[in-house]
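Per your request, structure below.
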């Protein structure tokens, strides 16, 4: 059997320098990590690997094996795309809201569960977990043991926290950790980790069809993910003003309104008063927003819009946005 990198799951090889799994031939027998993972871990190098048709590949493999699934999604990445992917998993599964440590205390867990049922039709068990604070991590193992499940897939979109959770579950040390990074597609293939009476399988991350960032915008990719407790920020806006996000999205309400942003506090947001402001290569999208709705910006978070309005959205991709019933 071919030896695999314990960091990303790809098969180790020494023949093709620029392909997945490369390691120098003299290191092949002794190395546990490919050269790419070694550089990410020890030198914090930013290396993007393109994985074609990765979403279809993951679903096909997981549904074929029909093992239990823990599907991770963080609060800021709940949208039609991620939940529809969760629904395409045909085996028994649990939806895990990861990064519990960033969720404002005003948002109660039961409220989120009921909202998921109402808005997205989620019928399965919903649990909450934080790898950073190690909250409910052990409980996830205990639930599997109670259900007599001896093999589980851990799935989720890029940066949902899969690999960090698995490292915590398995008690991995620096010598045998799965590689973690904010760069998309850090995990390249499935990685099976055996515990005493159980096997946990990490997978590549599902990839969003559209994102607010480009694959090479490493700084923005890092800032999109909240590092600390989420602090919603409210802007009072008028038709003569707009909210500008990272020079990528401009939002303008047709009436006096209130926008509350649930996004990473590291993201650059400005209120601007120049309605002639043109964002390069951006089109205008008109959205009818009902009272007390959320505007989802995929890969970034969501904005609570208090009053019904016609919203002008300046962006280069209309598929980034979704309007839904508010979480509150």
């Amino acid at each position: 059997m071919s030896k695999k990198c314990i960091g990303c799951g790809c098969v180790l090889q020494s023949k093709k320098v620029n392909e997945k799994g490369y390691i120098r031939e003299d290191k092949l027998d002794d190395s546990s990590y490919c050269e790419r993972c070694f550089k990410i871990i020890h030198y914090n190098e930013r290396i993007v690997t393109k994985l074609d048709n990765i979403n279809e590949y993951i679903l096909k493999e997981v549904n074929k094996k029909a093992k239990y699934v823990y599907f991770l999604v963080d609060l800021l990445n709940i949208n039609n795309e991620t939940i529809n992917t969760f629904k395409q998993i045909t085996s028994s599964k649990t939806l895990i809201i990861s990064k519990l440590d960033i969720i404002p205390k005003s948002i109660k867990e039961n409220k989120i569960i009921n909202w998921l049922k109402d808005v997205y039709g989620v019928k399965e068990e919903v649990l909450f977990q934080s790898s950073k604070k190690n909250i409910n991590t052990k409980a996830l193992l205990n639930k599997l043991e109670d259900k007599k499940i001896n093999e589980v897939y851990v799935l989720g979109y890029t940066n949902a926290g899969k690999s960090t959770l698995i490292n915590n579950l398995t008690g991995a040390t620096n010598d045998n950790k799965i590689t973690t990074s904010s760069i998309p597609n850090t995990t390249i293939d499935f990685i099976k980790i055996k515990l005493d009476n159980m096997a946990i399988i990490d997978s590549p991350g599902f990839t969003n069809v559209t994102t607010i960032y480009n694959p090479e915008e490493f700084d923005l990719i890092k800032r999109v993910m909240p590092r600390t407790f989420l602090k919603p920020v409210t802007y009072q806006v008028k038709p003569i003003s707009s909210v500008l996000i990272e020079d990528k999205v401009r939002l303008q309400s047709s009436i006096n309104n209130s926008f509350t942003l649930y996004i990473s506090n590291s993201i650059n947001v400005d209120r601007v008063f120049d309605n002639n402001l043109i964002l390069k290569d951006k089109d205008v999208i008109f959205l009818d927003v009902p009272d007390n709705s959320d505007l989802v910006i995929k890969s970034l978070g969501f904005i609570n819009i208090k009053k019904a309005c016609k919203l002008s959205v300046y962006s280069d991709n209309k598929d980034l946005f979704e309007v839904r019933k508010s979480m509150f």
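Residues 54-65 form the longest helix (12 residues).

Regards,
D.
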